[in-house]
Amino acid sequence: MGNNAKEQHALLTDYDTNTAYSEAFHTLFANIRFHWNNEKTEQFLVRNVHTLLIATPSNYSEQASVAANLAIVAAQSGTPTILVDTDVRRPQLEKRFGLGQHSGLSDLLQEDEPVTAERISACLQTTYVSGLKLIGAGTSTEKGSSLLLSPRLQDVVLCVCNVLARETEESRPGIVIFHSAPVLAGADASLIGALVEQTLLTIVIGNTTRAQAKQAQEQLQQAQARLSGIVMLKP
């Protein structure tokens, strides 16, 4: 997926739908849907809702753009979509969509009350892209990435899927896309990867070394993440 530095700093909605940059993401999502059609539905966490993690081995300043752009394409295709920022150390997605800080993942993980659909709905923010909603990293990030070690994480993921399931039809499944901190920065990506249906590893040409890519792949596999593909980015 080739693109120049300027394009890496923008979302697909800033570009004509016929550009090579935009077409690359549409092709990527088409391949993901093809993968769905060849997998058994028993892998769903919640019936009729797919789950996907987008992760990079090492730190890359525009890694959030990949998850954001894929979520935009999914929503534009008519797929009900929720995008979740699990990078509580470096939240990026709210800013990219022009949204203010709002209660989100870190708040859900620290609360004492059971995770409910109503609480998830209160954390959902509507974006300017029809069909795309966002759950940001949250307002309480003092504990950093250790928050994701909470046993509540699985409850939150399942509840987000259940909320989205209410908006889906049998003929058009929804998707929850997770953006995480780099795989090699800690356990964050592995914890999410162990819970979701698919994980895509983003390799940045000239930024990601072969050793980093191999180590990230091994770390995800040790966590029993279902690594279903690699996305190559050319900055």
Could you characterize the architecture of this molecule?
- With 235 residues, the protein is an alpha/beta fold.
- The protein has one domain: Rossmann fold (3-Layer(aba) Sandwich).
- It contains nine helices and seven strands; from the N terminus they run ααβαβαααββαβαβαβ.
- It has helices spanning 5-8, 20-37, 63-76, 93-96, 105-110, 117-123, 152-165, 188-193, 210-222, and strands at residues 49-55, 81-85, 125-126, 132-135, 174-179, 198-204, 227-233.
- The protein has a seven-stranded mixed sheet, sandwiched between helices.
- Helix 2 (20-37) packs across helix 3.
- The protein is globular.
- The N and C termini lie close together (9 Å).
- 45% of the residues are buried.
- The model is unreliable at 1-9 (pLDDT under 50).
Oligomer classification: single chain
| Rg of Cα set | 16 Å
Could you say which overall geometry the principal axes of the C-alpha atoms support?
globular
- Name given to the CATH homologous superfamily: P-loop containing nucleotide triphosphate hydrolases
CATH architecture: 3-Layer(aba) Sandwich
In what order do the strands lie side by side in the largest sheet?
Answer: 3-4-2-5-1-6-7
SSE topology string: HHEHEHHHEEHEHEHE
Enumerate the spans where pLDDT stays under 50 for 5 or more consecutive residues: 1-9
Number of spatially distinct domains: 1
Query: So how many helices?
Result: 9
Provide the helix percentage. Answer: 25-40%
Provide the descriptors you would attach to this structure in a database record.
single chain; alpha/beta; seven-stranded mixed sheet; 9 helices; 7 strands; 16% strand; globular; disordered N terminus
